[in-house]
Structure formats: C-alpha cells, structure tokens
Design goal:
Number of domains of chain A: 2
Shape of chain A: rod-shaped
Largest interface: A-B, 68 and 72 residues
Radius of gyration of chain A: 35 Å
Number of strands of chain A: 7
Strand order of the largest sheet of chain A: 2-1-3-7-6-5-4
CATH architecture of the largest domain in chain A: 2-Layer Sandwich
Order of helices and strands of chain A: EEHEHHEEEEHHHHHHHH
Helix content of chain A: 55-70%
Oligomer: homopentamer
Amino acid sequence: MFRKRHPPAGSQPGTMIISDEASKPAIRVMDYMADHLNEYEVDDVAQLRACLEKDSISWVDVQGLGDEQVLKDIGETFSMHPLALADVVNIPQRPKVEPYDGQLFAVTRMALYREGQIVSEQVSLMIGRNYLLTFQELHGDVFDPVRARIRQGGPVFRSAGPGYLAYAILDAVIDGYYPVLEVFGERLDALEDELLEHPVPAVLQRIHRIKRELLAIRKAIWPQREAISALVHDTGPLISDEVRVHLRDCYDHCIQIIDVIETYRELAGSLMDMYLSSVGNRQNEVMKVLTIMATIFIPLTFLAGIYGMNFEYMPELHLRWAYPGLLLVMIAVAAGMLAHFRLKGWLGNREREPQESEQG
Amino acid sequence: MFRKRHPPAGSQPGTMIISDEASKPAIRVMDYMADHLNEYEVDDVAQLRACLEKDSISWVDVQGLGDEQVLKDIGETFSMHPLALADVVNIPQRPKVEPYDGQLFAVTRMALYREGQIVSEQVSLMIGRNYLLTFQELHGDVFDPVRARIRQGGPVFRSAGPGYLAYAILDAVIDGYYPVLEVFGERLDALEDELLEHPVPAVLQRIHRIKRELLAIRKAIWPQREAISALVHDTGPLISDEVRVHLRDCYDHCIQIIDVIETYRELAGSLMDMYLSSVGNRQNEVMKVLTIMATIFIPLTFLAGIYGMNFEYMPELHLRWAYPGLLLVMIAVAAGMLAHFRLKGWLGNREREPQESEQG
Amino acid sequence: MFRKRHPPAGSQPGTMIISDEASKPAIRVMDYMADHLNEYEVDDVAQLRACLEKDSISWVDVQGLGDEQVLKDIGETFSMHPLALADVVNIPQRPKVEPYDGQLFAVTRMALYREGQIVSEQVSLMIGRNYLLTFQELHGDVFDPVRARIRQGGPVFRSAGPGYLAYAILDAVIDGYYPVLEVFGERLDALEDELLEHPVPAVLQRIHRIKRELLAIRKAIWPQREAISALVHDTGPLISDEVRVHLRDCYDHCIQIIDVIETYRELAGSLMDMYLSSVGNRQNEVMKVLTIMATIFIPLTFLAGIYGMNFEYMPELHLRWAYPGLLLVMIAVAAGMLAHFRLKGWLGNREREPQESEQG
Amino acid sequence: MFRKRHPPAGSQPGTMIISDEASKPAIRVMDYMADHLNEYEVDDVAQLRACLEKDSISWVDVQGLGDEQVLKDIGETFSMHPLALADVVNIPQRPKVEPYDGQLFAVTRMALYREGQIVSEQVSLMIGRNYLLTFQELHGDVFDPVRARIRQGGPVFRSAGPGYLAYAILDAVIDGYYPVLEVFGERLDALEDELLEHPVPAVLQRIHRIKRELLAIRKAIWPQREAISALVHDTGPLISDEVRVHLRDCYDHCIQIIDVIETYRELAGSLMDMYLSSVGNRQNEVMKVLTIMATIFIPLTFLAGIYGMNFEYMPELHLRWAYPGLLLVMIAVAAGMLAHFRLKGWLGNREREPQESEQG
Amino acid sequence: MFRKRHPPAGSQPGTMIISDEASKPAIRVMDYMADHLNEYEVDDVAQLRACLEKDSISWVDVQGLGDEQVLKDIGETFSMHPLALADVVNIPQRPKVEPYDGQLFAVTRMALYREGQIVSEQVSLMIGRNYLLTFQELHGDVFDPVRARIRQGGPVFRSAGPGYLAYAILDAVIDGYYPVLEVFGERLDALEDELLEHPVPAVLQRIHRIKRELLAIRKAIWPQREAISALVHDTGPLISDEVRVHLRDCYDHCIQIIDVIETYRELAGSLMDMYLSSVGNRQNEVMKVLTIMATIFIPLTFLAGIYGMNFEYMPELHLRWAYPGLLLVMIAVAAGMLAHFRLKGWLGNREREPQESEQG
C-alpha cells in the first residue's frame, strides 16, 4: 500500500523528512570533457563548488538520502529550490519534470525484479548548465553501463552536454522496465496454465497479487510518459535538438511499456473471469456426483424399504422368485438411470469431445 | 449521502441558508508585515475596515457560519459578491476558484480521519490585495502550524503577500489528505488479510463502506485539482511567480492523492471479486462434505436395506458368514469411495499443495 | 423508454407535431421596467406585437403547446426560426443553446419528484433584445418565486434585461434537481438497509428501477451543463458580464448535480454486487442446513439399517446391552459431528464474531 | 458480423468490387429551379453531361451498384475522384465527409426496421456546384417525402442549392433512426417484463441479440455525428449559412439518438445482471425445496429405522402406546421443523411482504 | 505474451540486437521512372550508392534482418539515424512515424492469418527524396500486387514519387487486416452457436484465446491510426497533396478496422457473460433432477420405514388391505409431487414455451 514520507500538514514548504533507515549519502563525481575524464569520491560538499566553475561536465551522483545537512549543502551549492530538494527526499514523488531558473528538475522511478519481488526506487535528476545531479535512495544502481560508456569516451557522449547524460540515465531507467514486463508475462502464462489444470483458490490470490503489482507499476510508468513528453517539448537551452531525437525514442519505449501493462491488466481481468467460472464448473462436477449417486440409490432403497415392511398380508414375500426378481428390477433401474445420465453427457464423455475436436 | 443546504429553487441568487446547528462566527485577525505582527479577536465587524487601509497583510479567519448578519457585514466590508458569500454558507460547494473584480475566491474541502470516521469540512478563501479571508464551518482547525510559521516570522512568509498565505492554507488542506490515505491503505490491507482467513458476509459490507468513502473522498479531491490548476495558470497580480512555483508543488501532491485513490478503488473492486469467489469456494466446500457423506453412506444403506427385506426365500440370510462378509464388503466400498475422492483432490490435500509450492 | 414526437423522416424541416393530449396555450405577459410592472393575460397573439416596440422588458410565458396556429403566430411575431419553433413543440429535445440572428434559443428540462415519480418537463426559452419567451408543456410551473421577485421589484432584477430573467429561470430549473437528488439519496440509503436485512429479489428490481431513473436524470442534466457553458462563453450582447457571473454559479450547481448522480450510479452498481453476493450467501446458508442434517442422520440411519437386517447369525442382536450401547454410539457420533461443524464455523457463531468486533 | 466488399490487399487504389447480387443501376434525374421542374430517367450516362452545363439544380439518383462501367462513366462525367467512386461501391464504408476539389463527398448509413430485422443501407452523396449525386445499394428508398417537397416546390427548397438538398436527404436518413429506437425501446420493455415473470435461458439470448444489434447501430451512428459536424464546420461555398443552421438541427438529432442508444446499452447490461441474479434465485428456490424435504424426513426416517432394528432387548417395542406415541413425536418434530422454516422465511411468505409494502 | 529484442538497460542508444534465428538479408531494388523499370538483386551494399544519385525512384527492399554489418552499411549509405536503424532491428516496435532530416521513418505491422494462427510481422519504411527503403523480418511478403502495379507501369504510379510508393505499401498492410477480421467474425459466430448447443468449459478457453488475440491485434492497429494521421498531417515535401488524399482513404480503413475490433471485444465480453450464466443454468438443471428424485422418494421411503418397525402393537400391520392401500397412498403422493413440479415448470415444459413463442 501507499506509504509516503511527508511532513505534517501545514509545515514550511520544503521541509525534509529523513527516514531513520536511510543510509548516509555517498557522493561520486565523474568530471569529463571530450578529451579528459576525472572520477573521484567527495567527502566534503564544499569540494563540489569546483564543478560549477569548470567548462567540463560534472555528473554528481548522490546515493543514500540519510543526512539532511549534506543534502542542504548540496542544494545550496547548486542553488536548488527548496521544493526540489524536498521532492528528492520525501519519497515517493510522482515522476515529473519541472523547470526552475536555469535548471530542469526531473523525478523518475526505477523498477527492478529482485528475488521474486518487484522493487522500485526513486531517482531524481537536476540538470544544470554544466552539471547533472542525481539522487538515489539506495547505494548501488543500474547505471554502470552508462558510466562505462563515459569511460570508453565516444566523442558523441563526451561532448554532448548534461542533457544527453540525463537522457542516458532516463533511458536506462525506462529500459529497465522491459525485464519486469517479461517476468509478468511469464507469471501470467504460468497462471493461465495452472488455471486450466488445478483452479485452486490460491490461484485467485496470485491473480490479485499480479493485479496489485501491475497497478503499482502502472502508477509508476504513466506519469513518466508525461514527464518525458515535457522534456521532448521543452524549449530551453538545456535540451539540444539531438537529445530531443533521443528522448523521442525513450518516449516510444515508455508508451510501448504502458501498452503492454494495459494488455496485461486486461488479461489478468480475463483470468479472474476464468477462475470464477472454474469455481462454478467444479461445483457442477460435485453436484453431478451427488445427483447421480442419490438418483440411482434413493429409488432402490425405497424398493428395499417396501419389502422390509412387516404387513401380514404381502403376497410377494412368499413367492419363490420374488427376491431374485426384485434384484433384477433394481439392476435394470440402475442401468436405465446410468444410460440416461450418459445420454445427458453427465458422465464426462460428451464434455471432452468438443475439446478434442478443437485440437484436431 | 449527499445533503446540501440550498435555498428553494427560484430564490434570489445569493440567498444564504443558515443551519440551526451552525455555531456563531468567531473572527480572528492576524495582521503582519516583514517586521511586525498583531493578533486580535474581533467582536464588531466594523473593526475590520481598518484591514483594508493598512499596508500590512491581514488574515481574517472566520470560524462558524451561524449568523447571517455578521457574514453579510463582512461581505460588505470586503466588497464580496453575494454569490461568493452564498457559496461560503450554502454547504457543500464543489471546490473551485473564481475570479472576481480584484479578488480571487476559492472553495476547498478538508478531509480528516477522526474517531474512525472520515469527516470533511469546507474552507472558503477570498484573496484580496492586502488581505485573506478564510471561512470555516466549525471552530478549531488544522492551520495552527501555518499560524506558528507566521509568528516565527520567516522573511519569506511575512513579505510574500496574501497569495502566499492562501497557498500555505491550501497546501495544509491538501497535505491533510495523506493521513486519510494511510488509514484507507491500512483498512484495505486488513480487509485483504481477513478475506483470506474468514471471508464472512460482514467483509462485504466493509468493502462497500470503503468504496462509498473512497467515492466521497474522490468527489472532494478531483475538483481541487482543477481549482489549483486554475490558480497556477491565473495571470492576475494576486498570484506571484514564486507562489506559482509553490502551487505547482501543491498541484503535484493533489495528483498523487488522486492516483492513490484511483488505485485503492481498483483494489477495492478486486477485493469484491475475491469475496464473491470465496462465497463460491465455501459453497464448494459445503457441497463436497455433503456429497462425500451421501455418496459413501447411500449405497451402504441400500445394501443394509436389501437384507432388511422380509422375503421368505433369501438364501443369504441363512449363511453363517453372510453378515461379517457383508460388513467387509461395506468397508471395502467405503474405502474405495474415499480413495476415489482423495484422488480427485476433494479431501483437501491436493488443494493445498500448489499453495505451498508457491511459497517455496 | 424513449418516446419522441417527431415528424416522419423526410418531412419539411420545422414540421410541428401537436400531441392530442396537449392543452391549449395560455399566454401570460409580465411587462416591467425599473419603475413599473404590468401583468396581463393575452387571448389574441396580435396583442404581443406591442411588446416588441416598448422599451420595457416583456416576459411572455406560454403554457401548453396544443394549438399549432397560435404557436406559429407567436413565432412569426417574434421572428422565430421555424426550426426553433419545431424544437419547442417536438418534445423531447436535448437541452441546448443555439444562437439565431439577434436571438438566443435555449432548451432546458425541469425534473420534479411528484407522488413517488420522477417527472420531467421541457422548458424552451427565446431571449431577444427586450423580451423573453418561455414555452412550457403543461400549465403550472415552479417559477412563482421568480415572478414574486419581479413583483417585489429589486432594482437589480428589474433593470437587468431579459438575459438576467433567463438566468433566473434556468437557475430555478437547475436548483429544482436538488430535491430530486435528495429523494434518490434516501432511496439508496433505504435500499442499503433493506439489503442487509432482507435481501429479497424485489430489492433487485428496485435497484434496477433506480438505475433506470438515474440514467434518465443523467441524460437530462449532462447536456444542460454544455448548454449553460455555451451561455457563459457567449460573446453576444444579450448576456451581460454580470449575468455571466451568475450563470457561472448556475454552471457550478449543474456540475455538482452531475457529480452526485455519477456517485449514485456507482453506489447503485455496488448495491447490485452486494445483492448478488447475498444471493450466494443465502444459498450457502440453505446448503449448510441440508449438509448438517444429512451428514448427521445419514450415518445414523445406516447404523439403524445394519441392525434392521434379517441375517440369522448376527450375534449383537442377542446381547442385552447392544441396543442402549448402539444408542450411545449414535449420540456420540452426532455430538462429534456437531462439534466438528461448530469448529468449522458452520453453526453461525464464528460468522457473527468479526461483525461484532468491527463495531467494538 | 462484419462483412466488407474489399479488393485484395495491395490492389490499385480505387479498385471497385462489384457484388454479383447487386442490381443494375437505375438513374433518375430531378432537374429543378425556382420556377421549373423536370423529372426523367436516364439510360445513357452521356445524357448526364447536360446537367453540368445548366444553371438549374440536378439531383442525379443512382439506385443499384451492379455495373462497373456505368459507375465509371458517371464518375468521369462528374469528375469524381477514383477513391470516392470506390467508396460508393466497396460497401460498407464508415460514414464520413471528405472534401474534394470543388466537391463534397459524404457517406451515410440508413437504418430501417423491416420484418423484425434491423437492416441498413449505405447512401453516398456527392455535392457539386449545381448537382447532387446520390448512390444507393438497393432500388427503393425513403426519400419520397423529399421528392414530394421538390415537386410541391416551396421557394425555399427550389432556390436553395444542392447543399440544402443534401441536408434534406441526410435529415431523412438521421430521422429514420427514431422508429428503430422505438422498436428497441419496446423490446427492452418486453424483455424486462418477461425477466420478472419467466427468467428462462432464452431471455439471455435475446438480451445478447439486442446488445449485438445496439452495437451495430452504434457503429453506424457514431461516425455520422462526426461527419455532420464536419459539414456544419465546413467553410466552403457549397454549404450556405442557412443550410448550416439546418445541419445544426440534424446534428442535434444525431446526438440525441446516440444518447438514447448509450442509455439502452446500459439498460441491456443491467438486464443481464438481473438475469444472472434470477438464475441464482431460482437455484435458491430449488435448494430450499430439497433442504426442507430432506431436513424434515431424514430424522423421521432415522427414528423409523431405530424401531426397525431387530435387537432382542428393545423394551419400547413391547409397550402398548409406543407406536402411537412415536407417531406423535414424529408429527411434533415435523411441525417444529416447519415452524422453524416459516420463521426463517423459507416458506415464501416473508419474501413477498416487502414487495407488497413497496407498492402500498 | 510480449517478447522484445531489446539491448540491456543503459546500452549505447542505437544498439542492435540481432536474433540468432533471423535470416540473412536479401536486397532487391526496383528502380523506375515514367518510362523505364530496372529490377535487380544486390549482393554488395556499395552498389546501392548509385540509387542516391539517379533521378529515378528506387525501392530498396530488405528482407531478413540477420546481419548487423549489412544493415549498418545500408544505414550509412542512406544516412539513416542510428536510432531509426535500431528500431528496424529491435523488434517489436510500436507503429509510428518520425521525421528525420530530409527523411520520414515509419514503422508498421502486418497481420496475417496463416494455418489457424494470427501472425504479425514488422515492416519499417524510410522515405527519402528519391528512394524508399523497406525492411521486413522475413523473406516473402504481401507486396507482390504492388510490384505488379509498378511493372504494369500506370503513369500515376511511376511518376508519383516515393511518398506514393510508401502509401501503396501502407495501404497493402492495412487492407491485410480485413481477412483477419473476417476470421475473427467467423470464430465469434461459431463460438456463439456452440455456446447455445454445448456450453462446455472448453468454450471459455476459446473465448479467452480470442480475447487475447483481439488484444494483440488492437495493440498493433491503434498506433497505426496515429502514425497514418501523422503522415496525413505532415507538411514536409515528401508527401504530396495527391498522396495525402490517398492516405486519408487508408486512414479511414484503419478507423473502420479499429471500430470492428472494438465491437468484437464487446461481443467476446458478452459471450463470456453468456457462458457464465450457462454454467449457472446447467447447475440448476442438475439440482432439479436431484431435488425431484429426493422429494418424491424420501417421504415414500419414510412411509415404508414406518411399517418396517417392529412394534408389537401396530394394528395396521394386521389389516388385509393395508399393504395395497399403502401402495395406493404412495402412488398418490408421488403423482401429486410430479403434478406440483410440472406446475412449477421444473419438468422442462414451461421453459421451452416462451422460446417457441418468440420464433412464432
């Protein structure tokens, strides 16, 4: 369910709520130009001032949001608006893009499938003239391929400005949804198979769980579509035309992911319907067993009851062939009933026929 | 259900309907500038005229709407349009923002979770050049943190004009929905657990109650989104650029709340489906017990009935081992039936298997 | 169901279909200015020509649409377009606003709750430079408060032009929906209570009836929202700025009514779900009674059947304590079954517990 | 289901597929001006060239689409675009309006209720400077009232140009939906009554059939709304302002028809729900009969079984009053059970009560 | 389920993922002008450079995407953006149109019904000044009619530029959906018939399969509508006015296909409802058999049990006519029950009546 770190209503705007479980921030800088690259860790926020004055591009990556003072210092160094800083910390925010004076602020949300669980993490980006700030909730991320591309240093990347770097990170975030979709696809397939074989109540709980998770994923991805669209249509100097073309590609992926999620939601709904009807079918099966047994034996038991009566004058009782005769009548009644049920298709044979012919 | 204090159709526009239960208005003024603060209670509306002439900002807070004359006097003092004044009193109004000559009128709706109940209260705001009027239905509110911020007197707040004050109040109203969402989240979680353990009919009533309350909350929050959006895009002088940036933040919260409510509505719908299927499952369980009992004992009773018949010529009756033999046959029949049902998974063992393998 | 008086396809546009049941038109004029008021009934349409030439404002109210010639004469006198005149008569029209040369034509629909029935009536308005024509299906209306306000003669009303008068009538029409909503609210509340106490099939029919009526009300109110919005945004001279402010208020009420209707529709849908599940629950209850009775007595009857057999060699039959012993065994079996069912919660006790704890 | 005469994928655009069943085209011309009217049949398409050169207005009505050469000749004579000509023949097309050089091309769809069937037919219109071409699938149509109006020759009609004539035909097409709606209304009413009286499975099939037909009608009418709206907003010279006013009226009818269809669809959905719940109710009724019978007789049969046992030492068997005493006990047990069921409302009496009180 | 060839998150944009199963590219060129046509196969990509320099139009058709180097060479020759090239290879892409410098890039998706399966294949188009590149996943396609039209060489086609050729291919793709729709229509019809005759569980699986396939088709066709609309409204020089008219026709077909798919989806949903109700109906039928048998025989068995008791003093036992009298009573009871059930319509006769009267 929805849990948000939010200050009490009426607080100063920009109030940060630091979680007790949040880890201390670790700051890593990649400082690069067409022809040089400098990577270092930063302990004292004051060191970051240098990034502003250089011509080179600095990617300042902050992992862990557990120290209010450090975050405030970073915010001050890069002139971040207090509301933007609060959005970085007070998690979860809705993915969005907001223009500030000379800066673009973006909130995005990664989704990962880890140990049978869908986990998600907020990544905030602040794009400036010659720097990109990224803030992540946890240590460790999925941006190593991006770092590798900077290190390999294609000329395109190194000279393309912080807008391109922001695109590369957003693209990694969005493309990270594809493996999650594949997991969902497999689980829906597995559920469908299981539904046909053993439609037990546990299947319903799993459909419900998938629906819940799809709702969560959908809530994360829908606003990203709007956010990336806002970036594509941003007319400021931070996003160049070439980056715009790349963002358009990223936007396409985003829409494709949304399409697939909506399709999965419909499939999950259809599986729910199938489950409900399987409940009805199983009940039918149980009812049929009861009805067949009862319908065959109740009349026979009645016949036996008749000749168990103690009337003095019951001529049949004294006939020699009455007993075996009655047994024959009983067998005939039971056989007639069975034939009737077989004709009605209650004995399972006619039900399977169309199924087979379908596969033929 | 919907209850509205509305004048009879065809009345003079601006007719106020004063509820008998409404408490008398209490008027408190906070009059502040960058360097001074003056708080006082007002008994005579005529005193309020002073607010209009000063350069300082006056927050005139009216709690309780139980006196038509006082409200009319306030309206006249601040040149409120009669329709705006009627909207303050004839509760509930749909949240909205309306421009009047030199004024902005806003209606908003607080939601609180108090003693197991979701309660809501209308707050109306009239933003003028150097004043803000607020009207509340009841004495007592959630704006004490805002008052505290004025008293502490950050320079930003004190010099920011009535638009910023209006934002601060709206922000407190919107952020007040987060705790309500948390309550709903917990209740949905609790319902889901209960649904798995005891899916009794009372659960359905509680799902229905949650759906009703979610509908009410949704009806309150949706129009606030439009209203805040209208404020963000208002081009008048009452909303400064800085306030606009803050309102954008408030708008984001509003959208996030709407997202969560829509998700909760879908989850409530899915819980309803689960409940309905659990009704079917319980019925299956009941049916199975009946069917197993009947299927085992009806043939046995029939056999007993056979040998309870009084035919003269029933050779088996006189055999020494007939009775224990028949008992053995009966035991064999019963055991065969049980084995058959166990194979069909009706005795509960096969049903639990997939559930366990799911957790493994 | 939908019934419309419409000319056969292909007829001359503007063809009027006069219903046989329609009553003869009665024409009443209120002719007023800031300082005078003149009320009179009109027998001969030719008298109406005077209205066009005066400076004063004339409200020409036509009740009853049963005379084609009279309506045509009125149309000619006030230069009404034949299509507008046909819209007045060929009922029902969709509520709408249409501009004609120097005129504004509006169709609206009143809803009333009268004798346990929702009834509705079309009111057509033609706003001209110095007159307002209104056409009503039936004699008698809800506009007496409006007439009273003209007679009392507030300066605002009397000098505000026919646009303001049209607003006053529209406002009376829209506000007339509030009592209807209250009736629906009470009926839904009553249905919900009854659903919990006696979920009989008749409840379903009543839910269906409410859904049908809500659909009808919705079909009437939705287009009025568009129509009033068109009036608010009309840039012609017939609607002054002051009237526009009042129409905005009327528009708000319209949206609020739509909100409530949509909420009621969702509640009605949720009641339908509750009813369906109550059908399942009642069936469960019936099934449990059957299953408990059958499960307890079938084995006992079998035991009795055993000792009703007539085998010669059944040693138990001759034991002195066999009969009371068997009775004790039977009591033990029945008691064991009952204990088992109580443990399973089938005897009703465990079902009620959570319900009670919920209220605690 | 959807059947379309379409050329194989990849064919030349404008390829016509002539159906084998299509009848030969019959061409009728009505050539009129304010003061003259000339009606004639055309055998040779070459004769039509005259229409282009006259000042009078020519309505060229082609009924039957079974001759490719004739259609091509007509197309060439009036300079029709090959794609427009293909749209005339390759039926069904989606209703639409398309501007071509100096021409407006419209596709519309008539709906008729004929012999218990909803049938529909495509009518294509090509509006030119001084001519109107209409193409119909079948001989015979519903435009005779339009022809009569031309013959009667009101000055409005005769001097209004081909745009007005096109409007008259579109209006006849749209107004032709009203009788179809009435048929649906009656069938839904009849279904609702039958559902309350005999909710047999055949009702479900009829609900499904109505839903299918409503879907078909809806697919036909929705695009006509867009098409007529496109005509209303067309700024070309072919549609005069006066015709625009008339088309607005036609547009209103179209919207009203759509409103009614949507309402009917919701009603059909609600009937489906009622049917499903009636299935559950009937099952409840069956179950109750079974449960009451079983619950009363199973314990009694058990008692009878007890005293049918053959134990030697059963003292009750020898008591004089044991037999009548047991019979009394049995009657008491049965009466107690019946009283219990009556109290539970299972014997039908309490179910009817609320229904009666509702009508009271 | 959704499967996509996508590079790992964070890769270089434009990374191509070549499938192991993809076949080697085969390149065929059709080089044509008004008066000449030249068809040849290309082995070495360098040969394609000639296409750029000629005045004639070159259609370069690449079938098979199994060689990264060849594709990169083609991309370089025609100055394709790396992102466009990646979209060609990383299948599936969402259908779309994207403008690049002097080029238009389009992704579309064919659907075919082949051997009882709906298969789909991505076709990518790159429109340049004097060339059209097409990329297909597999060897073999449905564009032979287009090739034939080029060879026959109508003047329209040969002189119309690559935009017209692109239209011809898109049109073939879109029109290829019609046969698929027909297949769906037949399957829905067949399902409906089967549902009425044998509503077995296998039908439900087939409804689910159709729903899944309709979802897949819908996901393919919806974005094509947007893409073609983007082409129609493209203002660049590559799409001439005449091509625009043709694309409008193609757009109409696309919308018609979407309409039909949406209708089919609603029908599939309605079939699901019918199936669910048929499950309930079959259960009713089973229940009725059980109830009728039990209700008739249980009381009779009880009566037999009474006279099977061994009381010493049961005067009836010694009456001469008691036994036949009891048999008569039993027959009367059974007949009474049967009459009662026939009256209630449980014996099938009354159920069929309304069905017959409907057809009369």
